[in-house]
Amino acid sequence: MRDFVYYTPTEVVFGRKSEDSLIPLLNKYGAGKVLIHYGGGSAVRSGLIPKIKAMLDSAGLPWVELGGVVPNPHLSLVYEGIKLCRKERVDFILAVGGGSVIDSAKGIAYGIRYDGDVWDFFDGKAAPKDSAPVGVVLTIPASGSEMSDSCVLTNTEKGQKRGCNSNFCRCRFAIMNPERTLTLPDFQTACGITDIMMHSMERYFTPDAPMPITDSLCEGLMRDVRVTGEKLMADPHNYELRASIMWSGSLAHNGLTGCGVRFDFGTHRLEHELSTMYGVAHGAGLAALWCHWAKYVMAENPSRFRSFAIKVMDIPDGPEAARRGIDAMRDFYRRIGMPTSIPELIGRKATREEIETMADRCSRGGTFTVGAFKVLGRPEMIDIYTKANE
Amino acid sequence: MRDFVYYTPTEVVFGRKSEDSLIPLLNKYGAGKVLIHYGGGSAVRSGLIPKIKAMLDSAGLPWVELGGVVPNPHLSLVYEGIKLCRKERVDFILAVGGGSVIDSAKGIAYGIRYDGDVWDFFDGKAAPKDSAPVGVVLTIPASGSEMSDSCVLTNTEKGQKRGCNSNFCRCRFAIMNPERTLTLPDFQTACGITDIMMHSMERYFTPDAPMPITDSLCEGLMRDVRVTGEKLMADPHNYELRASIMWSGSLAHNGLTGCGVRFDFGTHRLEHELSTMYGVAHGAGLAALWCHWAKYVMAENPSRFRSFAIKVMDIPDGPEAARRGIDAMRDFYRRIGMPTSIPELIGRKATREEIETMADRCSRGGTFTVGAFKVLGRPEMIDIYTKANE
């Protein structure tokens, strides 16, 4: 196993009454003037944004607001937020929403503590050294961004979706009320389940010898998200199931399930190009790719896929167990309504030109590799996109 | 499930090179003058204390030292530490050792930020509102105190071993180098394995309906500590096994395995009286009591013991599975060299008077109950001690 750092400072307040803690948490973490950052109309229509504004008003905490975050959040809105926060002298960014809103908030928080262009952190020109404080009221379990060190933004001008990881952007607090997720549409719920499982699958398929306790927790989490996730699709108004999936989303991506090993994240990198090219939901893009990635890389370490099949997918051991585990995952995706190929994802086949463009972007013109279980360069990316396009 | 708060801010630096991070961590967390706090001679003889002193000297960080912490750490040394830190204007407490040293350090840290008697926090007269910062270089995996909100001290004058829980005492950082544990004696290793498993068992046996993901992680952790722990007893110089057990020790008690449910901790409370009465090792005391506690309380919810047997102890399902799981744990304790009764623990039977004294202390003269899976008052405590005394 490898040396590691585990650092999850986010104070999580979880449950039906969690929103009552908003003002104490803002005060604890030094909020002065607050930016309330959110996405489309649902956070307003549900009454959550008006409730938060009223709470801040009652507490005498000044605020400004910026809505309009879209899935695969845009750098352009981050720039707008940075400008607004500087003009209004905002001290604290409060994200109200899911992963896109949190990542947009993290981008703003990085930007207002940096003199250059915040995109420098995403295209590798600079590393962040500071961030304004961010807190979150989570409404969509999926990205795990509420506890992770990750922030992913899309630069629409350049056609690039890029991530930046650092501990500076870890949220100070996360308020999670599962009741806010009871009415999520089925498709969004299934995308979330897929993304949550994938965050730990990306850690499980490592080139390293795993640490026993990390392996055990990672297998336990993936298996439970599969079992509980499928129950939830059949019983979407069940608070207990919603709560379990919501908490799994944080644990799947806060680092816990990858302690002591290198992660892969190749499927994530390949998917970012699908999102950029077609504007698809991240979770759906992951489901469309994973089984093809898995069959392509399985020969690197078949016994790892065998363990996955037995311990996560409940496949009996046998000579075909590894492959049957991948097929079982494909069947799981189908049962929860996820696509398992590019044609199912976008309604047609990708063109050869699109595949080459995605591989070019993902490999940064052939100069960059992704993944670790098997390292993927431009030719391997084209192979996997092509398999997923059948 | 219940609403919960999950807050584990401790920055863990884990692995062979982790000690290299000591000075950056001390600087990050605002150390000025440091108290180096430790136990007996092993931390000095191993070269760790001299190494740390040299590192602080090189970095220009002033320090004072206080050794002499004993297992079941004494309030009297905490008083001495508070006096020393006030006189020397110490800013930061660095614990170098295992749970006893960490808890003694936490006691000092509480005390130097409190005008009254620090024991007030342990006998319930006051609740802590602050603490000086504490960091730890861990050398013994067992207590989980490096990430927990717990601190347990023994007041030898009053014959009381009492705990205080608050987020104020969470360590700022924990440096964990498994190499430091390679030469731990077998008995201490086994006590650690027992304590680690028990910290999650105390959360697993809850009166509440468990949260699916919490249950899955808790079962995974307990099962892995059992399997890896038994391998470690046969192969004590194995770095990978030592590392896994060390990291399990932190995860078993940082709150992860009890999210959404009430914990029990009845066995812990009963054991504290054994430690106080006979000066025994905490882990050994837990092993001497648990199976007797389990058989006494099983009727409250036999299906929980059945799940424990199947998922943690690998017992096949069947009408006797619950009881067989308890017996399997007894056999496990025996295989790793732990006592499974009071006579095995102390070398003779406890007297009736001793049992009544322990029950009096544990129940605070019959005014206090412990546990939640089954609430235990003075009569039930006497029953369990008596069963464990056969």
Features:
2 domains, alpha/beta, 390 residues, Dehydroquinate synthase-like, alpha domain, Rossmann fold, 6-stranded parallel beta sheet, homodimer, two-stranded antiparallel sheet
Describe this structure in words.
Two copies of one chain form a homodimer. In chain A, helix 10 crosses helix 15. The two termini of chain A are 38 Å apart. Chain A is of the alpha/beta class and 390 residues long. Chain A has helices at residues 22-28, 42-45, 48-59, 75-88, 99-111, 186-204, 212-234, 239-251, 266-278, 282-297, 302-311, 321-335, 342-346, 352-362, 378-388; strands spanning 4-14, 34-38, 63-66, 92-97, 134-138, 150-155, 160-165, 173-176. The first copy, chain A, folds into two domains: 11-180, 3-Layer(aba) Sandwich (Rossmann fold), CATH 3.40.50; 183-388, Dehydroquinate synthase-like, alpha domain, CATH 1.20.1090.10. The mean pLDDT of chain A is 97. Chain A contains 15 helices and eight strands. A six-stranded parallel beta sheet of chain A has the order 1-8-5-4-2-3, sandwiched between helices. Chain A binds chain B through residues 1-9, 11-18, 209, 211-217, 219-221, 223-225, 227-228, 240-241, 243-245, 247-248, 251, 256, 259-260, and chain B through 1-9, 11-18, 209, 211-217, 219-221, 223-225, 227-228, 240-241, 243-245, 247-248, 251, 256, 259-260.
